[in-house]
Every structure is written in C-alpha cells, then in structure tokens.
Amino acid sequence: MATLGIQEWKRTSSQYVAILQSLDRFEPGSIHEVEKHNGETVLGGTIRGTTETDWYAIAYDRNEWEFEEARVRARQALDRYRTAQHL
C-alpha cells in the first residue's frame, strides 16, 4: 500500500473529489466504491499486477459540504487510512 496524500482536487457538478493516487497505478476498470457514509465516498481499485485494493480518491457531496469542510474531512479520512494501515 502506498503512503497517500492529496495529489489534486477536482470538482464535478455534485462533488468535490480528492485524488490520492495516479489512475495509472490501478488495473483498468477496477475503480469502485469502497465505503460510503455521511456524504463521503471512498473510491478504490486494484493495484496493477496485484490483488491488493487501495484508495484512489475520496469524494464529498457538494450539497452537504463546503469545499473547506471537504478538505478537513479528507485529511481526517487519510489519518484513518494511515491508522488502519499502521503507517
């Protein structure tokens, strides 16, 4: 598993999306919803050449969160990830 950090933010009409890793690291077509709660959706996929699933991005519903709130929540989500991975 990689040490994740926010690489960039993207905005869609309905979400703020924190991109955590390059899409090229994942098997094509493997990105899917890993977990979802409280307006936060974690997307993950299979790392190329492995059977390991890792986080790709975290999305926040724009109807529930302001951008600054999404930024704070993304940092908290990454802390949860690191704790779970013991990094």
Order of helices and strands: EEEEEH
Poorly predicted parts: none
Largest beta-sheet characterization: 5 strands, antiparallel
Major sheet: arrangement of strands: 1-2-5-4-3
Structural class assignment: alpha+beta
Supply the number of structural domains. Answer: 1
Calculate Rg over CA atoms.
13 Å
Number of strands: 5
Could you estimate the helical fraction of the residues in percent?
A: 10-25%
What is the number of helical segments per DSSP (H or I, 4+ residues)?
Answer: 1
Strand composition percent: 35-45%
* Spatial shape: globular
Oligomer: single chain
Mean pLDDT: 93
Distance between the termini: 9 Å
Can you put this structure into words, describing what you see?
The model has no long low-confidence stretch (mean pLDDT 93). A hairpin with a 2-residue loop joins strand 3 and strand 4 (40-46). The chain has a 5-stranded antiparallel β-sheet, covered by helices on one side. It is of the alpha+beta class and 87 residues long. The protein is globular and about 35 Å long. The protein has 1 helix and 5 strands; from the N terminus they run βββββα. It has one domain (8-85). The longest helix has 19 residues, at 67-85. The chain starts with 7 loop residues before the first strand and ends with a helix.
